[in-house]
Amino acid sequence: MDNKYEIENLANVLVKELISSGKLIAVAESCTGGWISKALTDVSGSSQCFGFGMVAYSNAAKTTLLGVNEIVLEEFGAVSEEVVAEMVTGTLETSGADFAVAVSGIAGPGGGTIEKPVGTVWLAWALRASSGPIVNTAKLFLHGNRQEIREQTVLCALQGVRERLRVQKKQ
Known about the structure:
6 helices
């Protein structure tokens, strides 16, 4: 299936599910450059469930706007589980949303290393809970050109939101 078509369909479903459950979502993006936010806000009625979208491309934006610890950034790098987890919790706290998703990755064609090759992407999802945010992370190794890596990242991020919405509904 074409990822663009799948992204559009999934965004439509997510917006409807978020609205029907009365939940707000917030997004923090690096390598996708606002594409996740765009996919969600392309859907009519998304203003009822979309609370916040931030493109934190630079490390300064990650620390200043999302509260990522500079020491964590220096130690683990922007494309790491530790940083994306701090991005998603900072997004949840800043936005007041019920759900948050954050992504950071190396879309290429440059920027990759042996340890973190082009196509390395970290995603994080957070759900607001009375005991504190529930955070899940995932590491992806994607293949393709820059556009394809970014597109696959958007799709995976949205699929992760959908999975977490389903789990929450069952609780």
